[in-house]
Write a structure and sequence with these properties.
Layout lengths: L1 H4 L6 H33 L4 H50 L2 H6 L2 H26 L1 H16 L1 H48 L1 H6 L3 H54 L4 H42 L22 E9 L6 E10 L4 E5 L6 H7 L8 E6 L2 E2 L5 H6 L1 E4 L8 E2 H6 L7 H10 L3 H5 L8 E2 L8 H13 L5 E5 L7 H11 L5 E5 L3 H4 L4 E6 L2 E6 L1 H7 L1 H11 L1 H6 L1
This protein binds 5-Methyluridine triphosphate and magnesium ion.
The site of 5-Methyluridine triphosphate has 12 residues, from α11.
GO molecular function: ATP binding
Keywords: ATP-binding, Membrane, Nucleotide-binding, Transmembrane, Transmembrane helix
Protein name: ABC transporter ATP-binding protein YfiB
């Protein structure tokens, strides 16, 4: 909770103002029973209308002041709440932007979403309530007891017994409730996760006709949430009658004992009325504790969850020795004895990988599924860091570059293309800040998608829906290629990005890409594509089996021969 609460710092002043205004309200509330007692003792008992009027006017005046203080307090409290929530969201967002892939794997999207929305709102509401009324309740209990002693110490003794019992009981409930609310928050996560997967996988669910299965999953998550919420609230609500019972007992005792004293003449009627009034206010404040408990324990649960994210160690950041003026100039890539294991796993995905790619060279990476091709790609822009060995670009370790400079020089087309909500033009321009229309069209033409875009209803201004559902797989691939090309990268990486293209289009694309002065790495399953590269890297089970031209591999690698045979037939491999 600490990290989150530190965000209150800039709001010290309005928070203090709110607190002071609350103190005014509190003082008035504490004075009113006292004056009421005086009004009865001096005015009512003596039947003195003037005195009654005087105290009446004073009390109305005070109540009015409290009323105004309350309104201004509310204004300041909500200001603190909103500002505070805004700052946390901003910080959370920035933090998540800095997350490495490994960090992201740790926190599912739904969990992050819940933190952004539900958790932050929970904290905001509680902060508001604390400034508005919650902090008043305990002070009112303390002040009420003190004032009761001021009015009549003998009658007030009863508070010394009841208040500690009640406070102890409340603390116990608080401790218990905090754990329960944590569980509720986790269940909300779960419901969100199921819902999110459901929405993003709706087409698949329909195609596989798995509606019932999904419904069961949702019903279960939802039921757990409902059960936990019910249990927690029942627990808290059942503490309420206990509180009221103890408080009412003490009220009865005050009335009974006060009555005896008034009859014997040791206490005045006004004092008894004032003490009863204090007892009622103390009782009200104590019963408010239930809400305070709910609020604070919910806030604690939420704040801890937000804390978790804010305190995550981002394991991938600029090295201290990174030189911010260093840029990738040529695109010379070296893998020097690189081994890689995904964080949190034990399986070696790449072992002892060694190869170099010259500036401007085109290298095809070929290998069976799961052999580590994508993993190898991810190491270059430092989406993950190699476990062992070093990757150098232009003879400098990738860690010498700032992440920003390194990634800026790379055009990466991931294996599953992702489009953002927006127009086609915006999606292409996403690759380069301030891209002109001319550049967008140029990149689209090179990516062989221009003609297809022109056939869309609004051409470049066509909106692609969430995840670009209204485009074909091949169209999405080519838009994401255009997005990479528009950067004019020094290093272009295509992860199986031409798999959905027909041979003619693919051929045109590869031809157009030749005009870009960059080192190109392309993962492919097709020998025909690989053959168009300068050299081919054959990878299997995380090891580099061979690297060389098509002819060289045909002679040196039996696995390569087998792949060629399976794609082109026996004759071809033999003839070569
Ligand atoms: C190689 C594992 C995967 C596989 C091996 C991306 C990714 C992969 N793996 C992880 O544990 N976590 C990850 O985030 O690594 O996987 P790859 O590099 O994706 O293989 P590929 O690109 O050659 O395969 P494909 O199917 O794309 O051709 O054991 O479990
Ligand atoms: Mg892959």
């Amino acid at each position: 909770m600490k990290t989150v609460l530190a965000f209150l710092k800039p709001y010290k002043l309005p928070a203090v103002v709110a607190f002071l205004l609350m103190l005014i309200e509190l003082t008035v509330e504490l004075m009113l029973p006292f004056f009421l007692g005086k009004m009865i003792n001096e005015g009512v008992v003596n039947q003195d209308i003037d005195t009654i009027m005087m105290w009446g006017v004073i009390m109305i005046g005070l109540a009015f002041i409290a009323f105004i203080a309350g309104i201004i307090n509310s204004f300041y409290s909500s200001h603190v709440g909103w500002g505070f929530a805004h700052d946390i969201r901003k910080k959370l967002f920035a933090k998540i932007q800095a997350f490495s892939f490994a960090n992201l794997n740790q926190y599912p999207t739904s969990g992050l979403m819940t933190r952004f929305t539900n958790d932050v709102r929970q904290i905001q509401n509680t902060i508001y309530m604390i400034l508005r009324i919650m902090s008043k309740a305990p002070l009112l209990v303390i002040g009420g007891v003190i004032m009761a002693f001021v009015v009549n110490a003998r009658l007030a003794l009863i508070f010394l017994i009841t208040v500690p019992i009640l406070v102890g009981f409340i603390l116990w409930v608080l401790k218990r409730a905090s754990g329960l609310f944590n569980k509720i928050q986790n269940s909300i996560d779960k419901v969100n996760r199921v819902m999110q997967e459901n929405l993003s996988g709706m087409r698949l669910i329909k195609a596989f006709s798995r509606r019932n299965h999904e419904e069961t999953r949702f019903t279960e998550a939802n039921k757990t949430l409902a059960n936990r919420t019910r249990y927690t609230f029942r627990f808290i609500e059942s503490s309420m009658p206990v509180l009221l019972f103890v408080m009412n007992l003490s009220l009865i005792f005050i009335i009974w004992f006060g009555n005896l004293q008034t009859i014997s003449g040791t206490t005045s009627v006004g004092d008894v009325v004032a003490i009863i009034n204090y007892a009622m206010r103390v009782a009200m404040s104590i019963s408010m504790f239930t809400f305070i408990i709910m609020g604070i324990s919910r806030m604690k649960a939420s704040a801890d969850r937000v804390d978790q994210v804010l305190n995550v160690d981002v394991d991938l950041k600029d090295h201290d020795e990174a030189d911010s003026s260093l840029r990738v100039k040529q695109g010379f890539i070296t893998f020097d004895h690189v081994s890689f294991i995904y964080p949190g796993t034990t399986k070696s995905v790449l072992s002892n990988v060694r190869f170099s790619v010259n500036p401007g060279e085109r290298l095809a990476v070929i290998g069976s599924t799961g052999s580590g091709k994508t993993s190898l790609f991810q190491l270059i822009p430092r989406l993950y860091d190699a476990t062992e060995g070093e990757i150098r670009i232009d003879h400098r370790p990738t860690t010498d570059y700032t992440l920003d400079n390194l990634r800026r020089s790379i055009g990466y087309v991931p294996q599953s293309p992702l489009l953002f909500t927006g127009t086609v033009a915006e999606n292409i321009a996403w690759g380069k800040e301030h891209a002109s229309t001319k550049e967008i069209i140029h990149a689209a033409k090179d990516a062989q998608i221009h003609d297809a875009i022109m056939e869309l209803d609004n051409q470049y201004q066509t909106k692609v829906g969430q995840k670009g559902v209204n485009l074909s797989g091949g169209q999405k691939q080519r838009i994401s290629i255009a997005r990479a090309l528009i950067r004019n990268p020094k290093i272009l990486m295509l992860d199986d990005s031409t798999s959905a293209l027909d041979l003619t289009t693919e051929s045109k694309l590869l031809h157009a890409m030749e005009s870009y002065e960059c080192t190109t790495l392309l993962i492919t399953q097709k020998i025909s594509t690989a053959m168009r590269a300068d050299r081919i890297l054959l990878i299997d089970e995380g090891k580099v089996l061979a690297i060389g031209t098509h002819e060289e591999l045909l002679h040196s690698s039996s696995l390569y021969q087998r792949i060629v045979t399976s794609q082109f037939g026996k004759e071809y491999a033999n003839v070569e």
